[in-house]
């Protein structure tokens, strides 16, 4: 029996680690593939390889992608060892997280995200990604807050 995947947004921040832990646990419990998605930019970077006026410098996608793959690999490393039964598909995208979580979450058993990640302010209940998903997702959503 093929089980729908669990999709987790991984931003590489300490606040996002509980979401990664929960996603691995759910994938293990349901014998589901885990799709770990790391979207490394919240900005429209369609000008990659050119001068990005809003950033003030040239962006080199190949070197940035390698660095962001390393962020994702590091965030998953210990969890892969703890849950060797979980098949993981690691994806790095240069785009906004919400759009990609929704796209890869189509038909998913569950989408898991942190309550707030890299840009979160201490007093915020939910971050922008979890808030946007809460209003648009069509499958179950688990928002895991860090302590």
TrEMBL record:
A Pfam family annotated for this UniProt entry: Usp
InterPro entries, alphabetized: Rossmann-like_a/b/a_fold, Universal_stress_UspA, UspA
UspA domain: residues covered: 5-145
Protein name (record): Universal stress protein
Family: Belongs to the universal stress protein A family.
Keywords recorded for this protein, A-Z: ATP-binding, Nucleotide-binding
SUPFAM superfamilies: Adenine nucleotide alpha hydrolases-like (SSF52402)
Species: Prescottella soli
